[in-house]
Queue: 2 jobs
Job 1
Amino acid sequence: MKLCYYPGCTLKTKARNLEDAALASLDALGIEYEELPRWNCCGAVYSLADDDLIHLIAPVRDLVRAKEQGADTLLTLCSMCYNTLARANDLMREDEEKRKTINDFMDEEIDYGGEVKVVHLLDFLRDDYGLDKLAEKITRPLKGLKVSPYYGCTLTRPREVALDRPDKPTVLQDFLKALGAEVVEFPSSIECCGTYQVLGNQESALRRSQAIISDATKHGADALALTCPLCDYNLGHKQKVILEQNDGMSELPVYYISQLLAVALGVSADVLRLDLNQERATELLKEKQLLAG
Amino acid sequence: MAREISKKTIKDQWRRKIMEISGENVYKCMQCGTCTASCPMNCDVDAPPRAVMALIQFGQAEALDHLNTPWVCASCHMCDVRCTRGIDIPRVMEALRQIKLRENVDHVEPSNLQPEEVVDLPTIAMVAGMRKFTS
Amino acid sequence: MSSQVDQIKEEVEAKLIPIYVMGKQYMVPESLTIMKAIEYAGYKYIRGCGCRGGVCGACATVYRKPGEYKIRTGLACQTVVESEMYLTQLPFYPANRATYEFDNLEGVPEEIFQLYPELFRCVACNACSKVCPMDVEVMDYIAALKRGDIAEASRISFDCIQCGLCASRCMGELPQYHIAQLARRITGAYLTPSAEHLKTMVANIEAGRYTKGLDELKAADTENLRNLYTEREMEPATAGEDWSPQSDAYL
């Protein structure tokens, strides 16, 4: 199997912590992959208009690049990229008419028909690598770390590309358990953080995020684990604003799942890029004796 | 609120356009309200998704024109996975947005964004926002 | 004498072919470039013509060939006419150019995002790359910029001559070439390591290492200057790495 890796724009800028920790973890697990040498932004959101094919060009072009590299599986880390690429892939595989239109439009590229499989790190570890095998590789179990799994929207919705049951997913819990963490489930774990509403309607986004943070804290979480840089922005980066606006709330560190994975695998701390998280994120790991110093 | 449903207010072409762009049959909606109950934005929208579906069923283009619902919708697909009638409501919201955007009017004007905001936001927020809110 | 006349006669009889300039047919010699053909047809350039050497980007031309759906492009000063082509020049295309005080920039991607937020409207349709007369992979440098890779965008856009055809075709209404220019400026000023030998050279100049030589040159009369020029020592074309001039007076 040839595994290619699609990074996505945000992982090369603001979400270096998601990427660096994930790639170091893949190396530690002995998983071979090749980063796509040529790629473009996938568009972040999937086109929902039936007659709007132009916004499918970007993700399909990336799938073409993966096919050109001879990949049979394309690995993503950002859940928005996963969602957009996986849905575009389904369409190219299943809709003959649209497939033809898109292939004809991109006459400078090779034809594509959904040959590459799009996966996210989470279902890749569960289905291809195996969570049991992962558990065996853990050298520094996240003992005593109470983590709430936060799925957001794009990992489990819509149904066609869901990594797990949309109403009651467990993949993230299973993953965190494999790392030795104490999983704290909470009802808002599949609710939307407000996503791109931060553009022009920040109030709504902050209100959503406030509800999610409070819910996790109420259920006893020490931290939140997620995979989407936009969720991380709303829940992590903007948390200081939320805390300022809401009395009595306590800070909840937000981690990318890849960072927790890297910690549990005992990978060197500099790849965690904790400088891009809240300060509290570093403190908590130190308190739990999961980080040297 | 009392609303006049008559030949004068029912915009059939608009209704057909929504179904064409979304690929969804709005008449399948039986007004159960599961979408509204599931909507994370239900306290920020002028009218909840169930009400929007009803307005579309009755071709009420003018009434819908002033509602913020399609713009506040985050396409989170919670209503979609829970809809008892299998309607992909986010696609209907997208159709409502597209009908406006295709008039070449932006909902968010990129040059009006606060420079500090642009610097702070992750790339996916900018890209997603541009796709959803600009023509 | 007669051979010269034959030559001239031959030139006059160069085959004429039809081309359509903005819809009107003209018969022009088949060997001409579009620019010369337009002049041959009687037009006089006051804009849309610059270096005539394929580098200034002023004479971007759009054309089609009969029966083809493809838009073709070229620089009028470089592209040879083809029979039945129909064309127009696009000397200018309106594109948003952000204003900035370059010295106040730090050279980080976010500054580009701030000045050109429309960057994020790119849909990767690739119309820009297809239309580029310099074969620049425009879509790829926009993709590089979206992920903050300014150096890569500069590398890919290096051959850009700022003709603006990319902007004319853009679905997302981006001013690609202006964004790339900012990227190259940033790369030049902030991302490229400054050359050590340049620093040494500047220090030498400031220390007066060349003052005497320059003063001598300035004082020389024309005759003297000509002699100095023609008799100067030149590096032979086949010189190896270790070659150095006999006199180091100007080094």
Job 2
Amino acid sequence: MKASRARLFKEYKEVQREKTADPDIQLVCDDSNIFKWTALIKGPSETPYEGGVFQLAFAVPEQYPLQPPQVRFLTKIFHPNVHFKTGEICLDILKNAWSPAWTLQSVCRAIIALMAHPEPDSPLNCDSGNLLRSGDMRGFQSMARMYTRLAAMPKKG
Amino acid sequence: MQNQDGAVADREKESAVSIPISEVDDWANFADDDIMQQQSAIHAEEAKKIPFVGDKEPLSMLAAEYESGSPILLEKIKVLDQQYAAIRRTRGDGNCFFRSFMFSYLEHILESQDRAEVDRIKGNVEECRKTLQSLGHTDFTFEDFFSLFLEQLECVLQGNEDSISQDELILRSRDQSISDYGEWFGWLVVMFFRFVTSGEIRKRSEFFEPFILGLTNATVEQFCKSSVEPMGEESDHVHITALSDALGVPIRVVYLDRSSCDIGGVSVNHHDFLPTSGDKSNAKGGGTVPVKPFITLLYRPGHYDILYPK
């Protein structure tokens, strides 16, 4: 659809123009396909994801922006609302609460907010959700931090 | 995503294409995407029953629906039959209020050729644009929807190169037009109204806050994000008030429900949403001009259709 391509192109220009506006998000469009994007987001501070850099993959449908992009984590992450194997994200704005008022950039911001504020009552990762629901903050944080170190931090030496 | 290498992508690809029954049995594979697919399949099924915007029907067709139902409703339909010539149904997909408003408004302009009204509403649309900008929306997130609506205003005025007939308006509203917008026309215009409504509510959040608190526990911002901007979220009096105010278009809503409050004889309640002028100090009284609404909607609990006065 022409409209989705035009819209994505505007988003692309906006991203180029505001490259430094949000240092926590680096959104990149595939060289050959404007419907494929990847993003690098920084784990929010004071969370077990701090210091990690997480890669997201976007697949934008032809009906965009009437329909939401599909987004998943490519980097392994231990979080109640992210599927541990597939990286699928449980977030209302990516499903029924989507509206064209969102952009790929603001979706990244929403995902960072989700990392800082997990919703353990609608878990995709039940182990992670159960730790939080049972109040085992220490258990949750150490697991989440371990996976951040293993998967989201550059290897040293 | 589906073109990525690896087993995960392959599995996704399979589930995204269709939902074989055997996979539904396996709940481990039943991901959110499948649920969304299933929902849209159900919607597609519904779509076959009623088009986005139906044909004009006499009110006797409405009465036929309640033949074996509540006598109060049948009495009320008789009363309606004296004042209204026809009903035009819209699909109950959560967008019925906005779609009814869209069709009714554009049809009114097409029939009245009221250029003064078109000029007036264009001014309001420009105000709405400024409102969204001042609320921090990036232009490209809403500008396409705005320009589409403005184009339609030109189309329903006759004598332009791209003037359209009522038949074409109906086709567009049913997303069956072969024009550029094709199957997305209705969605795009509904989205325009959702942006306008959301902007007005947030601009006058102090005014709308108590009404929103009466409906949900949400803040004004949350309400707009969850109940106004997303497609398919149903409209309430908050939405109607905001849209009417923002565009300066009065709307009459006629209520067809089982309530029978009047002593001696059944009457049908209606409520006129009369736009207040943009100045929020006029939000309560003072700013309203007594005008007769040219848009009349029939409300039955959970749904809006279009009514045509005699």
